[in-house]
Amino acid sequence: xxxxxxxxxxxxxxxxxxxxxxxxxxxxxxVGYRMDWxxxxxxxxxxxxAIAQVNREKRLRDFAGLAxxxxxxxxxxxxxxxCADKAELAQEQIDIWRAEGLDLPRFERIPDPIYPxxxxxxxxxxxxxxxxxxxxxxxxxxxxxxxxxx
Length: 150
Hints:
Layout: H1 2-21, E1 30-36, H2 44-58, E2 63-68, E3 74-79, H3 86-99, E4 106-110, E5 122-124, E6 145-148
């Protein structure tokens, strides 16, 4: 029993930092698109409001949130899981909006990397290795926090 406890006591400090490093960065979990509204008949603000309404009801669980930039020219998604599949998941979310009959703009993918900021999307939480706000402990059951949207 002492050997097991000693083994755990020696490995635990080594294993915990390795586990924290295995989390993706926020940048690895962000995907963005430019939006071309030239073929959309509806007012942009009405479409954005409709997106928000559908998103409340039919948002994929992997998403932590989304942000639509000034003048509705860009949209950013931030995932809390399955970050390697971020482009496919974002397209799946856009397809859900289209299936609801929304008059959507064309979406053009913004190349990676996209860094979290108030100009893109700025969510923090326990899902990302760089997601802990300075000086604030995290409850592992907490939800992502929106720090600011453009």
